[in-house]
Amino acid sequence: MAITIVMPKLGMTMTEGTIEEWLKKPGDAVKEGEGIATISSDKLTSEVEAPKAGILLNITKEVGEEVPVGEVIGFVGQEGEEVSETISTLLEKKGEKPEALSQQAAPEKTVDPLIDQKQDGPNRKRRISPAARKKAKELDINIATIEGTGPKGRITRRDVERAAEQKEVAVTKVQTEERVVERPIKANNMKGLSAMRKSIAINMQESLANTAQLTLHRKADITKLLVFQKKLREEADQNNIEIKLTLTVFLARAVTLSLLDHPEVNTHLIDDMLQQYEAVHLGIATSLDDGLVVPVVKHAERLPIGSLAKQIQEITEAARAGENLEMSGSTFTITNLGAQGIEYFTPILNPPESGILGVGTFMKEMGLDEHEKLQTMIKLPLSLTFDHRVLDGAPAAVFLRKIVYYLENPYLLLL
Amino acid sequence: MARKLTFSKAINEAMDIAMERDNKVILIGEDVAGGATVDHLQDEEAWGGVFGVTQGLGNKYGRKRVIDMPIAEAGYMGAAVAAAVTGLRPISELMFNDFIGSCLDEVMNQGAKIRYMFGGKAEVPLTIRTSHGAGAGAAAQHSQSLYGMFTAIPGLKVVVPSNPYDAKGLLLSAIEDSDIVAFFEDKTLYSMKGEVPEGYYTIPLGQAEIKRSGDDLTIVAIGKMVHVAEEAANELAKQGVETEIIDPRSLSPLDEDTILQSVDKTGCLLIIDEANPRCNAATDISAMVVDKGFDSLDAPIKMVTAPHAPVPFARNLENLYIPNTSTVVQTAKEMIGKLTLSR
């Protein structure tokens, strides 16, 4: 006697499932419990198992078709059995005459999960106790899948509970799979992550997961620095020296000098081994249209301010042009959100570095000078994230104060 | 070691305490003293009731409060109802519950209706003590268990104790109750001994007792059947089935909540009732559970009762008539799933 394979209900909310793949072709021999097809719902991917051993006679739904729960997707029976025969037997079983329904309508007929396919005769009705039925509803268990161990094969509450335990194990097994096939609700333009996005995602996630990050904030008075920058630019112009003396250049210089003064910040912590560097390789976080890269200025400590300016300009322009650049090996990173009007933020460490300086937007403030006279001051907010596994708050604060000191005494940057 | 009394003595003690505490409490019945119309026994106690349950009370409280009656149930039951309505608190003894037919009008159509028909202004604080149950070789006319009949009548309360302790506490509650309470004493339990505290205590009517806790099966057993249930539970425990036994103690009012909670836990209900199988307390409880606890059920409710037949006189047949342990165990096992049995 051929029997139907139906779309199973995998979750409480599942109303239809999609055939992902037919694991067997019509004519293939199947064992009881063997996977015949892979189907997926909004949440789960699962295999449809052969309800009994035999031959997969026919499949009624193709890959990609969305099929309501309980609807027939195929038939399993004995060799040589005709599907039309199967349909008529199915209908007979349900007490309906085959001619009463058209051939097309027949396979659409949903199969009552309470009909025990393994049994013939008037006792085919699957026995289930009221308590078991209620429990199955609560635990979202498809009663068609439960073996009854009560008197006369009745499904009892304990049978449902046992089925639920087994299902839990099964669900755990497919969970990894589940994540991949998960469909976001109403997402347009679905696409995978770009290689850069993936790498950013992995790095940032790892950074937060594996380090003890803490961010200190303070402002530097850059009134003098801006005067100094203006003066330097004018003189460079007058002498036809073509360099871009941006604020980042002065910041890079101040950071380099501070790192030389405080080499304990210029470190990598790798596998519990702390490596301190004499060389300062500065990462300059550079935003692109579709991501972020951190090109590196090698040996910044060897570069006077003019060379530093050139280097920074070169690597950031190259990065924006999409050129292949050395992106690793930096010992400290500077990231600047000032152009976007951000003041303070909490930069995420660029592992395995121990520190990253976040630069905000400078602002005019009222303040008192050394003669207690009201002055307009220009303040630059700085955010230093450091790895607390390597540094404590106080030395990190001393380091940040040193940066501020250089910025507030800009002539020192020339030394 | 706590004091042990027989079921009979516990009931005697309850009446003694009630009569001591309240001189409105009187005893009316056949042979409750036992010397009526016998000249030389006029001031003596000959019987103390046919089972000796009222023994000593006649001498202690006098013949004005312990009143022997002729064999005329309709007459003295009518008198008892009237005495109750007019201010006394009588305890009338119906020697065998099988005799209710002789005085059913007084109980059912008068006593049970009075409070209702007088708009609550009249009370009938009457306790009808009566004996029931097979097993004493008392044949078809003295062995029935008719508490189901009483339970069917609104206006009556029905108590069926299973042990001496409950008998004393429940009888004191019954006597203090302002409605007619039919108090059923299984005649084969009279000699049963059990711990009974001295002095006054009551057990509220309508409060079941969980005699044993278990997760697999609920047995509700009435009166003496509680002991059959306990034996069966011991048997079942050997086979890994944990039985919860509930003694409803009073059938009207019935402690539905305790039964429903237990069935919700176990999913299986077996009711043991010595009464005949049609329209008895078991069918009543079964119907209640199907109505209010359908979703708790893991198996059809089973009832182990006497057959639909009069109680036989022949000992061997009488023994077969009364629900027994092996029938209960067998029925229980038919209800329980393989999964439970295999645990």
Walk me through this protein's architecture.
- The complex is a heterodimer of chains A (415) and B (343).
- In chain A, helix 7 crosses helix 9.
- In chain A, strands 9, 12, 15, 16, 17, 18 and 19 form a 7-stranded mixed beta sheet that branches.
- In chain A, a hairpin with a 5-residue loop joins strand 18 and strand 19.
- The longest helix of chain A has 25 residues.
- Chain A is elongated and about 100 Å long.
- Chain A is 31% helix and 23% strand.
- Chain B contains 12 helices and 14 strands.
- In chain B, strand 10, helix 7 and strand 11 form a beta-alpha-beta unit.
- The two termini of chain B are 38 Å apart.
What are the main properties of this structure?
heterodimer; A: 415 residues; alpha+beta; seven-stranded mixed beta sheet; four-stranded antiparallel beta sheet; 31% helix; 23% strand; elongated; B: 343 residues; alpha/beta; 12 helices; 38% helix; 18% strand
Topology:
The complex is a heterodimer of chains A (415) and B (343).
Chain A: E1 3-6, E2 16-22, E3 29-30, E4 35-40, E5 45-49, E6 54-59, E7 66-68, E8 72-77, H1 83-93, H2 105-108, H3 130-139, H4 157-181, H5 195-210, E9 213-221, H6 223-238, H7 247-261, E10 267-270, E11 273-276, E12 282-284, E13 286-288, E14 291-293, E15 296-297, H8 305-320, E16 332-336, E17 355-359, E18 363-368, E19 374-387, H9 393-408
Parallel strand pairs in A: 12-16, 16-17
Antiparallel strand pairs in A: 1-8, 2-4, 2-7, 3-6, 4-5, 6-8, 9-19, 10-11, 12-15, 13-14, 17-19, 18-19
Helix pairs in contact in A: 3-4, 7-8, 7-9
Chain B: E1 4-6, H1 7-21, E2 25-29, H2 57-61, E3 66-68, H3 73-85, E4 89-94, H4 100-117, E5 127-132, H5 147-151, E6 156-159, H6 164-176, E7 180-186, E8 193-195, E9 209-212, E10 217-221, H7 225-238, E11 243-247, E12 250-252, H8 256-266, E13 269-273, H9 281-293, E14 302-305, H10 315-321, H11 325-335, H12 338-341
Parallel strand pairs in B: 2-3, 2-4, 4-5, 5-7, 6-7, 10-11, 10-13, 13-14
Antiparallel strand pairs in B: 1-8, 6-12, 9-11
Helix pairs in contact in B: 1-6, 3-4, 7-11, 8-9
